[in-house]
Predict the 3D structure of the following.
Amino acid sequence: MLDKTISVRDTRPYSGYHNRPAPNSDQYITQVMPGTPGGEYLRKYWHPFLLSSELKDLPVAVRLLGEDLVVFRDKSSRLGLLHRHCVHRGSSLEFGIVAERGIRCCYHGWHFDVDGTILDTPAEPETSKRKHNLTQGAYPVREWQGLIFAYMGPIDDLPEFPTYDCVDHPQDNEVVPFRMSMPCNWVQIVENGSDPMHNAFLHAIVAGQQFSTAFKVLPQLDFPETPLGFLSMATRKVADYVFVRSSDIILPNMGQFPNGGNKVDQESVGIRPFLTRWAVAVDDTHSFYIGFAHLNSYNKSVRKMSRDDFGVDKIPFIGQTDNRPYHERQQEPGDFDAVVTQGAVANRNAEHLGTTDRGVVAFRRMLANAIKDNETGKTPIKPKIYHHGPVSTYAHEIVLKIPEGVDLSDAKKLSDFGHQAAMAFVEFDGLPPSERELAVQHKVKSILESMSTTR
Ligand code: FES
Ligand SMILES: [Fe+2]
């Protein structure tokens, strides 16, 4: 599965001939097509795939998990997601005519409801049983906060549609949808979020000042598990402050990320992430990340933004697409350039991981275990299934002034503080958002004070 044969490297200079990459033989966690273990696992979850604003009065052809589909809103405002090719003789329903109820194929007029039921086969004789013994393939669809989601698994396993605390936050909450195309496998997108060290190098030290200068400080890393997956954490001592930045990695393909603009010059403890996003597979070698930007006062105080900055292939950070001149991408590369050039499916047999890749390893292990559980008929333990209300999530930022008598110059101590502080977000995850924020603030401050050597 994920085991690799450790190859012996030739360490002489100019040893290219002797060190050519091993072939990419391990696709267990990356395959998304129907019938593959990974594809069947992903089909057990709801995935967003389109902005509501992209779906107007005409059908839209989409490709998801290697299947060609068409989505439309009928004239009664009901959403349908159908196999793209008509069950009669295969014409594409992207050229179907949207009806009061469902959609009608342009070729011979077969009429389908949003759930795939055949309402009419007008070219067939009255006595035809065709419409009773066939259906057009269809998948359940949900719309939430400006995104359209699909469930593409077995209908008997249809899961509850989960909502999330940060997106449904009761106060000071404006969520703005976006979707960004990535011509590579979906796992690379999640791995990028599981790798906080790249924030220091790609976004601050090597490629350009894309995040705040605080990110130049090399962090202590930690990857504690949560009920949903794990936190991808970086803890830094920045001048007189301690700065914890933790992203949610939520199985199978969701993540939440604080913004990169925190200057670390005033205290704050925020549960709210800046981006909530899913890495969704189009097929094995094409994906997109899609989700919400949170334009609340917390994030807007760090970075100036408006709704118009987000949309389809539009997000206000450098390096998230290939639509810059090539030489500019070379001069100041961003996430797109780093992640997509790992390969259409990154060759994990040719990698040589370091100790700071622990988050990437953790994600691969959890993903492989979840796929294996699904393959053997078990329900994966992560993400924890919640009922009754929004799912509590864990992404956060903490900036606190280091009190007198507390010395966080020791790496281990700094890391311990970050870990304990993050666990406070897990400890209070049963509280409503505002109460939880207060409880965590209180706890985190007392953890920091308790680290004083003069007490
Ligand atoms: S191909 Fe669709 S009705 Fe004939
Ligand atoms: Fe990044």
Summary: DSSP finds ten helices and 20 strands in the chain. Confidence is low (pLDDT under 50) at residues 1-5.
